[in-house]
């Protein structure tokens, strides 16, 4: 398949003045009539090439009201080309599509009997022939016709300007969107849907109607999403001065959806999982996701829709910036410390491995085969870190000045990441040219710090080195511009005031720009403890001289909550790695009593916020430990981590019992807010340690926690620990859960997921068995992710089992799924690409599984790209 390259970008030769579309909806044969008012741009004597997918049939082509014969245009499997066109003309194209057969869930498809669309990135070309590229923006007027009884609700972008009845029980609606938009933001929904309505008055006094459409029976489960939307609208006005621009904002929740949600202009479409939430069916983590994703899609109205991307290489222009905005929103709504820790945990778990593997690419990639494969943690999460660094370099005021200039310059345009940094740079008179390397250079920098205290001179000198290892296609790396928020902590646990660069302060920003640099702090009266990269001010891997005592000290005292938490993680990782080595040598690992003391101090510290305490008491994940190993040994990691958990649970059993009892919330109305969620999180962590300490004898306690749970967070906490155990309570709780929730697909996904991630023997057999469950289908992406994805990504212990059966299972599922939904199939491949991290026995089996996929017959571009790059 062809490789698309950034360097080959050329501007469009034709402009669309306006587009009118008519949809005659029918599940198996929908007729789409698209009329485009087109202008050929001056000096562009080139043919008009329209994108179109092979799954769509061309019915007719009309130029200025005259039907064109076959020979007047060229039709291939992926395009329609017209030559010798006048300077201005009207082009009408009729296509016929089969939404019911559309299992790819791109373009127009059916989900539980309703029609819906997904056009980003290149789904519009599965609806009609069109210049399906983000730099072609135009206004749309859309007429939808459908049988009224089956599809009473007809929605598209913009304002609903006309409705009426038609013969034969059909009806129609006309929608007009006054804002020019690229085709990827087009949306249409038709169905028999329930609706919840609210209102929001903007800062400019615009009265906006807010509606959430869901399948009947779910209307009572959208209150939290609506509340999140209203808070997002308010927050965007207060923090960014950005106001909503239409009189209506619609959200539709659908069951079959490839990703989380989609920001179509004024008609956001969501995976129902990220809209529907009530205490009985959603965990606290689900509530937080609903809030964050509703906000993210809403924020795209300005960062993505009003100003969009020139081409798909610029995807991070809208995604990195919008993730940064949603992270800031969630931090403001909840807790900045907890939010930052969770965001960094996610970055380390998903983006760091991606950047160290065969699929590593820059935030602004240079090339792709299938753009769907580039909706990655690098483009989203690392992209957000790049924006966050700009924010910390420029400060809140400077950053907002840059945003203001960005909108002044580019509202209504399709632009590049360079345009964004130019606005930031010009608004602040600051040269960001070195900083911009973060967009084009891939790989995670390794920053190494060594320290020296001079007691006589009262100086503290640190030598900082940076190195980024080669990544595919980038052998040579240059030093990046790395801002490191830093403080020196005194023996009393307080930040010391000291001089750096002529400035006396308790915290400084060190700017690393070279491969190696020295930084000297003056006026340092005692040997300090270094607290560097506070708040994770730069997305780097940091190695320092600090030993276990310094880490324990930071765990107890660091004023920066991120570094306080991080010190515990570093300490935990280093202990687990030591224990792994002992296990590998056939020994019995010891547990460092100082670490147990440090964890005990945290457990007892009454001044710590419960949500933070829950995070600080949680050991680094098995994946994160694996990241630190040259050759990953999943069994030893699991064994060592469990051993450490047991030791902590046993050492502080009484304290965990105390936390479990005292953080019980008074009975009454469930509060989804951050504070109450923090108590539940801490109680769950305490329950887990009690389970680790008591082993199988904890089963009755876990069962009673499950039986008494009046919310999904508590129920899942008990079930999570029980599913790892071989006790009768396991089956009884799983069966009770299934009986209660078998009618709710969203909740059944949790049931699938928890079993797929079990550490018990024979989990793969269980997963294969669950694929036969009546609630499971390969056609629904949520089901696939919750069972197959959870096993292959969330269960390293069994996925990497010695005989390679986990790998063969994944290859088999990818091959089967590629015929149904290539986008989701390609995403499943990820874990196999990590083969270089394992011993030769595992490597051979992982590579064999990838080869098996590659040799299995005709593959989609999506799966081909991931599989071939993974092997390279
Ligand atoms: N901009 C959207 C990304 C997206 C997507 C969403 C649903 C299905 C397929 C999709 N392809 C790309 C979501 C977002 O980042 O806001
Ligand atoms: Zn987004």
UniProtKB/TrEMBL annotation:
Signal peptide (UniProt feature, chain positions): none
Enzymatic reactions: Release of an N-terminal amino acid, Xaa-|-Yaa- from a peptide, amide or arylamide. Xaa is preferably Ala, but may be most amino acids including Pro (slow action). When a terminal hydrophobic residue is followed by a prolyl residue, the two may be released as an intact Xaa-Pro dipeptide
Enzyme class: hydrolase
Keyword Protease: yes
Cofactor needs: Zn(2+)
GO biological process, alphabetically ordered: proteolysis
Domain (Peptidase M1 alanyl aminopeptidase C-terminal): residue spans on this chain: 550-872
Any one GO MF annotation of this record: metallopeptidase activity
Residue span, Aminopeptidase N-like N-terminal domain: 87-185
Domain (Peptidase M1 alanyl aminopeptidase Ig-like fold) ranges: 443-544
Short name of any one Pfam family annotated for the protein: Peptidase_M1
Sequence ranges assigned to domain Peptidase M1 membrane alanine aminopeptidase in this UniProt record: 224-435
Keywords: Aminopeptidase, Hydrolase, Metal-binding, Metalloprotease, Protease, Zinc
EC number(s) recorded for this UniProt protein: 3.4.11.2
Functional summary from the UniProt entry: Aminopeptidase N is involved in the degradation of intracellular peptides generated by protein breakdown during normal growth as well as in response to nutrient starvation.
Family: Belongs to the peptidase M1 family.
Protein name: Aminopeptidase N
């Amino acid at each position: 398949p062809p490789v698309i390259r950034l360097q080959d970008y050329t501007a469009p030769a034709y402009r669309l003045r306006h587009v009118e579309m008519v949809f005659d909806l029918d599940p198996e044969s929908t007729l789409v009539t698209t009329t485009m008012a087109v202008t050929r741009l001056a000096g562009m004597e080139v043919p008009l090439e329209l994108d179109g997918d092979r799954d769509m049939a061309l019915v007719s082509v009309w130029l200025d009201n005259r039907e064109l014969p076959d020979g007047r245009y060229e039709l291939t499997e992926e395009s329609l080309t017209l030559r010798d066109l006048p300077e201005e003309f009207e082009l009408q194209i009729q296509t016929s599509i089969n939404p019911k057969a559309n299992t790819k869930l791109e373009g127009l498809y059916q989900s539980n009997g309703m029609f819906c669309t997904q056009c980003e990135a290149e789904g519009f070309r599965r609806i009609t022939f069109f210049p399906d590229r983000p730099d072609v923006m135009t206004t749309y007027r859309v007429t939808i016709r459908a049988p009224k009884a089956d599809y009473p609700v007809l929605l598209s972008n913009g304002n609903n300007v006309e409705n009426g009845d038609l013969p034969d029980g059909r009806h129609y609606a006309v929608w007009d969107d006054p804002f020019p938009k690229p085709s990827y933001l087009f949306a249409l929904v038709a169905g028999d849907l329930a609706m919840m309505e609210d209102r929001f008055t903007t800062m400019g006094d615009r009265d906006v109607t807010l509606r959430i459409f869901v399948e009947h029976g779910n209307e009572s489960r959208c209150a939290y999403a609506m509340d999140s939307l209203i808070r997002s609208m308010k927050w965007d006005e207060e923090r960014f001065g950005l106001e909503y621009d239409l009189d209506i904002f619609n959200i539709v929740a659908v069951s079959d959806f490839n990703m989380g949600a989609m920001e179509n202009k004024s008609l956001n479409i969501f995976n129902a999982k990220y809209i529907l939430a009530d205490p009985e069916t959603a965990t606290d983590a689900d509530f937080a996701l609903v809030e964050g994703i509703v906000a993210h899609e809403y924020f795209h109205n300005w960062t993505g829709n009003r100003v969009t991307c020139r081409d798909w290489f610029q995807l991070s222009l809208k995604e990195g910036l919008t993730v940064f905005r949603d992270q800031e929103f969630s931090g403001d709504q909840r807790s900045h410390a907890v939010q930052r820790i969770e965001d960094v945990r996610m970055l380390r778990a998903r983006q760091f491995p991606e950047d160290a593997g065969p699929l590593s690419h820059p935030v602004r990639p240079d090339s792709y085969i299938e753009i769907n494969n580039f909706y990655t943690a690098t483009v989203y999460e690392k992209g957000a870190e790049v924006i966050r660094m700009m924010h910390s370099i420029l400060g809140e005021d400077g950053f907002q000045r840059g945003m203001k200039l960005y909108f002044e310059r580019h509202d209504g345009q399709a632009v590049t990441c360079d345009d964004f940094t130019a606005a930031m740079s010009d608004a602040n008179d600051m040269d960001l040219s070195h900083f911009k390397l973060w967009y084009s250079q891939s790989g995670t920098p390794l920053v190494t710090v060594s320290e020296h205290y001079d007691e006589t001179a009262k100086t503290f000198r640190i030598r900082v080195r940076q190195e980024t290892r080669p990544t595919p296609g980038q052998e040579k790396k240059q030093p990046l511009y790395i801002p490191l928020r830093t403080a020196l902590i005194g023996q009393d646990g307080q930040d010391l005031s000291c001089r750096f660069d002529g400035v006396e302060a308790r915290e400084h920003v060190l700017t690393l720009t070279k491969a190696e640099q020295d930084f000297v702090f003056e006026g340092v009266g005692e040997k300090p403890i270094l607290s560097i990269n506070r708040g994770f001010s730069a997305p780097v891997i940091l190695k320092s001289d600090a030993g276990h005592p310094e880490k324990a000290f930071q765990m107890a005292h660091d004023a920066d909550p991120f570094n306080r938490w991080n010190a515990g993680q570093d300490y935990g990782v280093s202990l687990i790695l030591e224990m792994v080595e002992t296990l590998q040598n056939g020994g019995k690992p010891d547990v460092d009593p100082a670490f147990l003391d440090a964890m005990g101090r945290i457990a007892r510290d009454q001044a710590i916020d419960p949500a933070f305490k829950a995070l600080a008491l949680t050991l680094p994940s098995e994946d994160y430990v694996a990241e630190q190993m040259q050759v990953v040994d999943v069994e030893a990691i699991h064994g060592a981590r469990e051993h450490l958990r047991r030791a902590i649970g046993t050492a502080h059993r009484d304290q965990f019992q105390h936390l479990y009892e005292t953080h019980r919330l008074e009975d009454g109305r469930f509060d989804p807010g951050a504070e109450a969620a923090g108590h539940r999180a801490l109680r769950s962590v305490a329950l887990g340690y009690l389970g680790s300490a008591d082993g199988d004898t904890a089963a009755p306690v876990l069962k009673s926690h499950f039986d008494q749970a009046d919310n999904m967070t508590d129920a899942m906490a008990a079930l999570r620990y029980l599913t790892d155990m071989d006790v009768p309570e396991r089956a009884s709780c799983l069966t009770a859960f299934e009986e209660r929730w078998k009618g709710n697909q969203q909740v059944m996904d949790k049931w699938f997921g928890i079993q797929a991630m079990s550490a018990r023997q024979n989990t793969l057999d269980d997963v294969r068995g669950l694929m036969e469950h009546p609630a499971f289908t390969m056609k629904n992406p949520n089901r696939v992710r919750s069972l197959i994805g959870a096993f292959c990504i969330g269960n390293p212990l069994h996925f990497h089992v010695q005989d390679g059966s986990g790998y063969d299972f994944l290859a088999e599922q990818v091959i089967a799924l590629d015929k149904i939904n290539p986008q989701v199939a390609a995403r499943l491949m990820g874990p196999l690409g990590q083969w270089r991290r394992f011993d030769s026995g595992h490597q051979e089996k992982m590579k064999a599984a990838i080869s098996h996929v590659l040799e299995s017959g005709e593959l989609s571009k999506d799966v081909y790209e991931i599989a071939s790059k993974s092997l390279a």
